[in-house]
Amino acid sequence: MIPYGRQDITQADIDSVVEVLKSDFITQGPAVTRFEQAIADYCSVNYGVAVNSATSALHIACLALGLGTGDWLWTSPNTFVASANCGLYCGAQVDFVDIDPQTYNMSVDHLRDKLETAELEGRLPKIVVPVHFAGQSCDMKSIRALADRYGFKIIEDASHAIGGRYLDKAIGGCHYSDITVFSFHPVKIITTAEGGLAVTNDELLAKTMQYFRSHGITRDAEFMESASDGSWYYQQIELGFNYRITDIQAALGYSQLQRLDSYIEQRHQIRLRYDQLLSDLSLVLPWQYPDSYSALHLYPIQIKPEAKINRKQAFESLREKGVGVNVHYIPVHTQPYYQRFGFKPEDFPNALEYYQRTISLPMFSALKEDEQSVVVKSLREILL
Ligand SMILES: *Cc1c(COP(=O)(O)O)cnc(C)c1O
Question: Please, are residues 129 and 72 in contact by the beta-carbon 8 Å criterion?
Fold first, then answer.
């Protein structure tokens, strides 16, 4: 089966990991700091805080921004559940903003309308989490303007988007947001097996995320509530977690980062080939926003209503032919857990309609040309 996504591990990656295993520190040593600094440099941002997953990064990002009971967090329904769950972890309530049918990202028009209503009803969100779906940036300039007007904070969920660019700047520079979060799960652009990282330009947010990552404990005198007893001393000032990443993982991430730009170029070559070879079929191919250079985590197609088979039939046929397609995403508000909050599937019709037609084709930097040809041939056979 050709998977929809897969990691690429080289001998250099293996050597970096082995080096850490033979060193003094396998966790909380120098490799984590080196990785954080390298990602921050790549994104031209001041601070990086590495953790054991993007889910953890989203959680401590929300905590650092003060999200709590009585607050609202809004995100896109077309995302992985983690983008919404982080709000619930903090005791806040979660709501969604429907997607734009062309980019599949959070629609700025829907966001604007919903903010107008929420202001009248006195339930404006404290945090909005735009998700850069498939690696393509949201319209961050417009979302920033709305944040300035309505006073909410922005966490970019860039789990799909490391290596991508928006208005000629690396995603993760936090030019339009408070915090940006990356995922290093093996299906994502670069991997640490499990891992995530939050970047920010704000020193206080970075330090706050650092203590939430490690039990709410600080060794920094400026955060202590009384004088230090001595150089061994620490204080727990908040209820934090153990969300630390290991040096073994950070060394893998650092080694992978050296190939990030070539990975993105390879993904674009694969995209161009799909664009050409599938253009005559009854498919909607992923549209590329001119302001954005996508990291191309995914290549989501839609089966058009007039196609001779529907999405489910196409999905099953592709799997039978050894093409490991997937679906991104089942809208979060349709999950049984979210239905308990009273959401109805048709509350966000664009996300629902997109979900009913979409299939993610294999897309990863190590996808070989002959494997891609099998994907194309299989699709042509079932659609023509
Ligand atoms: C993968 C993903 C996450 C969660 O990442 P983990 O590192 O697995 O916790 C969050 N949001 C989006 C959009 C994702 O794709």
Answer: no
Q: What is the pTM of this model?
A: 0.98
What distance in angstroms lies between residue 296's CA and the mean position of ligand 1's atoms? 15
What spacing in Å lies between the alpha carbon of 159 and ligand 1's midpoint?
5
The string of DSSP codes covering 213-280 is HBTTEE--GGG-SS---STT--EE-S---B-PPBHHHHHHHHHHHTTHHHHHHHHHHHHHHHHHHTTT
Cα(16) to centroid(ligand 1), Å: 25
The predicted pLDDT at position 184 comes to 98
- Residues in contact with ligand 1 by the CB-under-6-Å rule are 53-55, 79-80, 82-83, 131, 157, 159-160, 183, 185, 196
Integer CA distances (angstroms), 117 to 114, 121, 124, 323, 364, in order: 5, 6, 9, 45, 41
| Residue 198 alpha carbon to ligand 1 centre in Å | 12
Per-residue pLDDT, averaged over 358-365, amounts to: 98
Model pLDDT, residue 48: 98
For the chain, give the percent of residues with pLDDT over 90. 100
**What are the structural domains of the chain?**
2-257 (3.40.640.10), 260-383 (3.90.1150.10)
Mapped onto helix, strand or coil, the DSSP state of residue 45 is: coil
Q: DSSP state, 168?
A: T
Distance CA(19)–CA(37), nearest Å, equals 19
Residue from 7, 73, 159, 171 whose mutation best tests the ligand 1 pocket (most atoms within 8 A of CB) = 159
